[in-house]
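Practice problem 4.
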């Protein structure tokens, strides 16, 4: 054949253009073939072949994961270049070219199935010296995803493929190149370390393939993609320092709380100069660690030439709050460069903030500041699908801030910590472990999977003094209480305003119902859709700032990072780390004054609710609460419940000794156990890697839930009607429908889903489950009613 094509081309009306307009598969005269920079490929010029352009981009992405001038950078670049050159070798088969032409012919109805084009390249690289099997996963999966090694090597790579080799050789494709050893030198990296690095190479190929294809097929959209500025980190660092000077530096703080916050900022600024690696930032709640950690990250990235900042947050309840703070800091800079510096990625993202630029950036994380959740970040690190893995290569050489690092689940700590060591030691990132308690992830006698203490640099040098100076609450244990006893205590101690944090939505609804007749009471729980939660939280904050007496009953969603303060807080039975988080909502800014203007203290009470015991399904919470009762309370005076010594006792049992009950901190056996996903003990270990099982079993949230759309308010009601109309006319929903629905969606567990089927209607092939008769099934104060709840006789009254 005289010409080989990668893709056809259509006009604006969808008509297929002449072959002369199609994308060539390969160009023999190209600097990329010799490892150089080809200007045509750099500009994704349509005249150069698809393999050339993908090779150029994949080489670039792989190289950028490693420091400039390093041998690892050269090695990774070559792996990337070869992955790009060989990923579509099967398209040289005449059968595939015929398939492409038949598919493009509007008069040809005889096109059945697809012609496999990715197996050929995977077969080609398998026998190569230096871990060719790992290369096979990358090329075989560049459309379908990284697979099960047994299926890949025993079935797929043994099947016959169409004859492509001679045609590729005649076209000038270099096929006899050798792969270098992978850039992984740690002796303790293990099979999972090699699998991890392979997943990042896979990310480079997937992103390169997508971008090169998009540039040819949809050049208008390709031109809209944000382009990274080489000076953006420096610009951001300057903007943040100006903001902090204007906000906190004039005049110098004189009150104790703000003086300590200034000390935290100074410590972060100074520590930024230290070599990259693991850092710990241990600051009590309310100590200002959000902006201080960002200050560290930007200065550190500027000094060590790292590429972006990734802020990883455990709860969606606070992610919007932090993202909005960052947007305020960089508002002027975002305006100057014409795109939003902050890329917010989570399930409750406000669709009004989406632009074409940040939508495109979200696909592959091409942004200087990412704000995301633990779930999105870690599940992406263990993903196998192309859409989830595409952005991974952007994580290398970043500063990653883990807020509330102690909140990571014990049952997955082994794969999580091994992945962090890969990011830091192999992919040259810096990880900042932020906690409001103390570092819980250090290696010690009973916690062999931890990060060695010698690898972690503490940012705060005198944590004991900082905790003592920022002590703003007086803790007390009330023991077992019925609801009536709790309400009686509130009438004596919390009438001026209090926060009650309970463990279940049922308890929150019950207490709210009992208290609302006597107090201006508000309710927050996951039974309410996110927009409802944000509305109530804003109202409560406003009333608190006005000095009004407010009683807020909430589940745990309020206790991490939410900027609100009460003089009195009640916390139901929990782990001591959660109790410390709850304390951060009490006298948060040191606003309580004692006699003669001296510093006063808020009051935080721990209690065991007899009427609302922790259900068995919340086994981790139940276990942690038992540790607090059995090991912490008997050994520490209640006035020292929030001391570092008490926290240390708690972590000793909750995390460091949890290995036996969580299968050595790896319940699904991702990296450990008799049959881990990435074992190196088999005769041909790399052919047994199981990326598919790792992706399926690595779930930060361990319970299956269903999404329910709540028509709460006019906007949600209008959207519900749009969805019903789409379903009625058989039209599919688009991205904006899903995005707009997020802030009106709640999750329910499987048992409730089955019991409540009559309350929901499914639309658009099950994509949306909408709550019907919301006026009767959704309470205006406490959210979704349970299936067993009685009807409200006033529901239909106007």
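Answer key:
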């Amino acid at each position: 054949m005289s010409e080989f094509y990668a893709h056809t081309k259509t006009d604006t009306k969808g008509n297929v253009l002449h072959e002369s307009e199609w994308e060539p598969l390969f160009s023999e005269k190209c600097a990329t073939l010799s490892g150089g920079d080809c200007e045509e490929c750099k500009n994704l010029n349509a005249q150069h072949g698809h393999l050339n352009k993908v090779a150029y981009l994949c080489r670039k992405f792989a190289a950028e994961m490693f420091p400039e001038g390093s041998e690892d950078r050269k090695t990774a670049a070559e792996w990337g270049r070869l992955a790009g050159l060989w990923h579509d070798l099967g398209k040289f088969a005449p059968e595939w070219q015929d398939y492409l032409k038949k598919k493009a012919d509007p008069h040809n109805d005889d096109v059945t199935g697809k012609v496999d084009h990715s197996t050929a390249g995977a077969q080609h690289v398998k026998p190569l010296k230096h871990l060719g099997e790992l290369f096979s996963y990358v090329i075989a999966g560049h459309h379908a995803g990284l697979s099960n090694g047994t299926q890949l090597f025993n079935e797929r790579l043994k099947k016959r493929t169409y004859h492509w080799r001679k045609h590729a050789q005649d076209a000038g494709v270099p096929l006899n190149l050798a792969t270098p050893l992978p850039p992984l030198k740690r002796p303790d990296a293990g099979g999972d370390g090699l699998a991890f690095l392979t997943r990042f190479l896979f990310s480079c190929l997937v992103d390169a393939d997508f971008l090169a294809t998009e540039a040819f097929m949809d050049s208008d959209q390709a031109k809209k993609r944000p382009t990274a500025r080489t000076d953006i980190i420096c610009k951001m660092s300057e903007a943040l320092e100006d903001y902090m000077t204007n906000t906190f530096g004039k005049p110098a703080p004189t009150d104790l709380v703000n003086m300590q916050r200034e000390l935290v900022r100074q410590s972060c600024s100074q520590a930024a100069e230290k070599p990259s690696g693991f850092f710990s930032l241990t600051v009590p709640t309310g100590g200002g660690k959000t902006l201080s950690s960002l200050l560290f990250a930007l200065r550190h990235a500027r000094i060590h030439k790292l590429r972006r900042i990734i802020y990883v947050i455990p709860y969606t309840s606070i992610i919007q709050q932090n993202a909005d703070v960052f947007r305020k800091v960089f508002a002027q800079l975002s305006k100057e460069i014409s795109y939003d510096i902050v890329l917010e990625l989570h399930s409750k993202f406000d669709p009004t903030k989406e632009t074409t630029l940040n939508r495109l950036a979200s696909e592959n994380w091409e942004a200087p500041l990412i704000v995301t959740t633990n779930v999105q970040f870690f599940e992406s690190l263990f993903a196998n699908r192309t859409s989830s893995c595409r952005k991974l290569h952007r994580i290398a050489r970043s500063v990653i801030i883990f807020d509330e690092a102690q909140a990571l689940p014990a049952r997955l700590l082994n794969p999580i910590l091994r992945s962090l060591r890969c990011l830091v030691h192999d992919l040259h990132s810096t990880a900042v472990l932020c906690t409001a308690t103390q570092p819980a992830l250090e290696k010690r006698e009973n916690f062999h999977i931890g990060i060695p203490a010698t690898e972690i640099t503490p940012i705060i040098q005198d944590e004991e003094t900082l905790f003592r100076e920022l002590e703003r609450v007086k803790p007390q244990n009330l023991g077992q209480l019925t609801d009536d006893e709790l309400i009686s205590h509130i009438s004596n101690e919390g009438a001026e305003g209090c926060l009650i944090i309970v463990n279940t939505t049922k308890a929150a609804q019950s207490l709210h119902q009992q208290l609302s007749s006597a107090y201006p009471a508000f309710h927050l729980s996951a039974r309410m859709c996110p927009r409802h939660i944000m509305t109530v939280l804003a109202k409560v904050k406003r009333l608190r700032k006005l000095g009004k007496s407010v009683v807020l009953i909430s589940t745990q969603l309020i206790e991490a990072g939410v900027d609100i303060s009460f003089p009195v807080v009640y916390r139901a039975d929990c782990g001591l780390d959660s109790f410390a988080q709850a304390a951060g909502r009490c006298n948060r800014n040191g606003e309580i004054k004692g006699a003669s203007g001296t510093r006063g203290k808020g009051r935080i009470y721990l209690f065991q609710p007899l009427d609302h015991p922790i259900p068995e399904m919340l086994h981790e919470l139940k276990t942690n609460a038992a540790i607090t009762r059995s090991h912490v309370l008997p050994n520490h005076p209640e006035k020292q419940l929030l001391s570092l010594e008490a926290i240390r006792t708690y972590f000793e049992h909750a995390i460091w000794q949890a290995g036996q009950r969580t299968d050595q901190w790896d319940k699904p056996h991702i990296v450990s156990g008799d049959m881990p996903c990435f074992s190196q003990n088999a005769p041909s270990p790399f052919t047994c890697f199981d990326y598919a099982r790792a992706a399926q079993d690595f779930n930060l949230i361990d319970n299956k839930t269903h999404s329910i759309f709540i028509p709460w308010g006019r906007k949600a009601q209008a959207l519900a009607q749009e969805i019903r109309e789409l379903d009625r006319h058989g039209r599919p929903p688009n991205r904006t429908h899903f995005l707009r629905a997020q802030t009106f969606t709640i999750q329910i567990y499987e048992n409730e889903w089955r019991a409540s089927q009559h309350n929901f209607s499914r639309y658009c092939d099950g994509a949306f489950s909408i709550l019907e008769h919301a006026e009767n099934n959704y309470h205006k104060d406490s959210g979704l009613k349970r299936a067993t709840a009685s009807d409200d006789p006033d529901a239909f009254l106007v």
